[in-house]
Design brief:
Rossmann fold, 8-stranded mixed β-sheet, Arc Repressor Mutant, subunit A, binds zinc ion, 6-stranded mixed β-sheet, binds adenosine-5'-triphosphate
């Protein structure tokens, strides 16, 4: 019997719909490989897949569409080639690209019946969520962490979207723990990865962290020290790429800075004082070890490296990364901005070696246990081991949920949770209606066409928001950062282009005007369409339509929660009051949230913390 006969027998009438379905799968990693296999074997008519990454050795244990011969090749293209052999009747189209690229427009999203997310980061998930809401295409969102997994069905206006529930708050470490009093290996790893690495290789010299906003009575001296250390590091950066550079960095962070810490005698009354380490001594130690062990020094990632091995790797990785960055800068377009930088990637051996060696050397200084490269890779990459079986189960659930959508049976679609609890592996929940306070789905939407090289924030605020749409002074303009509000007008004369607003950028307008007895208007989300530059002196714009922007509903009490009723429609007037979502467990999916700029601005006020954002950047508040 042919495959088609089996599928017809098991799926019955839905198969006709499956055969003609045109679907998009974003991400071809752990879940994506399993999902693509399922889609192809089920006989979905046309599957488009997007992944920006290339195949890494560490993917092969579970991403079974890839083999050794594919390492460094595009995940999307190889996944397509391998899976196309499973079922020649399925049309596969692969893109080696970032889903955020402008080529993937709203119209392109609209051309699909369904979108599947098989991603590994919050930023891309949120982006696809928004695109699907804008394009009004159903989204099946999935994720796994170790033995846990979940699938969520998202349909605009009918269910919660990905952002209806706040995501876990970023894990933070106080600045003083990281900078002055580390006591655990993770503190040294965070220092190496998020502070030292980005100061040397990541931050444009013109754009060093602005700490002014963060100075408060408690951390003023700390911030002052940090500022001075940054300035010193910048000076060392003048020697970037020269043979002296690794030594200068080493002496700065493991001797000069430590001596300065030691001068704060009070700090060491009740704790072990750090002990600086000396370049020349370690060089001697390393020479002796290299003589004995030859090229085997620090070759392995399982054993904990000796002090000398960490020293050798530190120098070696600083040299290699400096060369790499100089090469990037050499090849960057003249006057182009931003200047090239390097970012930490746990799968990039040279960046990992740097973090391992720098973290372990710092651990030595503070009398903390050193860790192996293998362990540090997990800690620095926030890795909970991926489990192939979890991915396979979740990918299966995604397809089962997609049948409900293709069959127009949203009422029977569910949010599905997989966990390792012995009494119940699966739990399900009815889909909840959108959260009326959600800043992403409970919004008005509109497209705006502009010449981004001419149109400024002032034009936008004056002509569009105040002139055309009747907003008051009390309004904030936000992308992934705050661009404008009544107290922040630094950007008013900047063009959209200068602020990185281009084709496909979302701009959110938050109404903060709360007239007596009324609520503010819901957020308005603009999607920018960049127009071909013209010679017009006037900065003009065109809206796709005049949006209706209703006022926010008056907040409901907790408990007024309604699931989808039998016919898949919302019970009239019901909203999500909260509390219905599965309770977070200790081992729940850990997502490090890059909350929207406006929100994080508020949330981190007065905090003396380092915030690890989703993109692993360091933010010092
Ligand atoms: N913006 C994006 N556009 C396209 N693909 C993306 C984007 N962000 C992430 N991805 C892809 O999503 C996939 C997620 O797969 P997975 O969670 O298995 O991660 P991985 O990088 O393959 O594995 P690991 O993180 O465990 O090393 C990756 O292949 C990644 O390249
Ligand atoms: Zn929402």
């Amino acid at each position: 019997m042919s495959r088609e006969t089996y599928v017809t027998e098991s799926l019955g009438d839905i198969y006709e719909r499956v055969k003609t379905a045109r679907v998009l799968m974003v991400g071809a990693g752990g879940i994506g490989c399993e999902l693509l296999k399922n889609l192809v074997l089920t006989g979905f008519g046309e599957v488009h897949l997007v992944d920006l990454d290339t195949i890494d050795l560490s993917n092969l244990n579970r991403q079974f569409l890839f083999g050794h011969e594919h390492i460094k090749k595009s995940k999307a293209l190889v996944a397509k080639d391998t899976a196309s052999k499973f079922n020649p009747n399925v049309k596969l189209v692969a893109y080696h690209a970032n889903i955020k690229d402008p080529q993937f427009s709203v119209a392109w999203f609209q051309s699909f019946d369904l979108v599947f997310n098989a991603l590994d980061n919050l930023d891309a998930r949120r982006y696809v969520n928004r695109m699907c809401l804008t394009a009004e295409v159903p989204l099946i969102e999935s994720g796994t962490t170790g033995f846990n997994g979940q699938v969520q069905v998202i349909v605009k206006g009918k269910t919660e979207c990905y952002d209806c529930n706040p995501k876990e708050v970023p894990k933070t470490f106080p600045v003083c723990t990281i900078r002055t009093t580390p006591s655990q290996p993770i503190h040294c790893i965070v220092w190496a990865k998020s502070y030292l690495f980005s100061t040397i290789f990541g931050i444009d010299e013109d754009d060093s962290p602005d700490l002014d906003n963060s100075v408060n009575a408690d951390n003023a001296s700390e911030i002052e020290n940090l500022r001075r250390e940054n300035a010193e590091l910048q000076r060392i950066n003048d020697a970037f790429g020269t043979p002296d550079f690794p030594r200068l960095v080493f002496e700065k962070v493991f001797k000069i800075d430590i001596d300065r810490l030691l001068s704060m005698e009070d700090a060491w009354k009740h704790r072990r004082a750090p002990v600086p380490i000396l370049y020349d001594e370690l060089q001697k130690l390393a020479d002796a070890e290299v003589k004995k062990a030859g090229s085997k020094v620090a070759a392995d990632d399982q054993p904990v490296w000796s002090l000398a091995e960490n020293f050798v790797m530190f120098k070696d990785s600083v040299e290699k990364l400096s060369c790499r960055l100089l090469e990037l800068r050499k090849n960057a377009p003249e006057g182009g901005s931003p200047r090239p930088t390097l970012s930490f990637d746990k799968d990039d051996d040279e960046t990992l070696d740097f973090v391992v060696a720098a973290a372990n050397l710092r651990s030595q200084v503070f009398g903390i246990e050193r860790k192996s490269k293998f362990e540090i890779k997990q800690m620095a990459g926030n890795i909970i081991p991926a489990i192939a079986t979890t991915n396979a189960i979740i990918a299966g659930v995604c397809v089962l949920q997609s049948f409900k959508l293709l069959n127009d049976d949203l009422a029977h679609a569910k949010a599905v949770f997989l966990s390792r609890r012995p009494e119940r592996i699966f739990s399900t929940e009815s889909l909840q209606p959108p959260n009326p306070d959600c800043a992403v789905c409970s919004v008005a939407r509109c497209g705006i066409e502009v010449d981004v090289e001419k149109f400024t924030i002032a034009d936008f605020v004056e002509q569009v928001l105040r002139g055309k749409l009747g907003y008051s002074e009390e309004v904030s303009v936000v992308t992934d950062k705050l661009l404008y509000d009544v107290e922040f007008d630094d950007n008013v004369d900047k063009t959209f282009k200068k602020l990185d607003i281009g084709d496909g950028t979302f701009i959110t307008i938050i109404d903060e005007d709360e007239p007596q007895g009324s609520t503010p208007r819901v957020n308005l989300e603009f999607l920018v369409y960049a127009r071909e530059p013209t010679d017009d002196a006037q900065a003009t714009y065109k809206l796709t339509h005049i949006p209706e922007i209703p006022r926010k509903p008056v907040r409901k009490q907790v408990g007024e929660v309604g699931g989808l009723s039998g016919d898949g429609e919302l019970p009239a007037g019901e909203g999500k009051g909260g509390g219905k979502k599965r309770k977070a467990e200790d081992d729940e999916l850990v997502e490090v949230s890059a909350t929207d700029a406006k929100k994080s601005k508020v949330e981190t006020v007065d905090e003396d913390v380092i915030v690890l954002e989703d993109d692993e950047a360091i933010e010092i508040e």
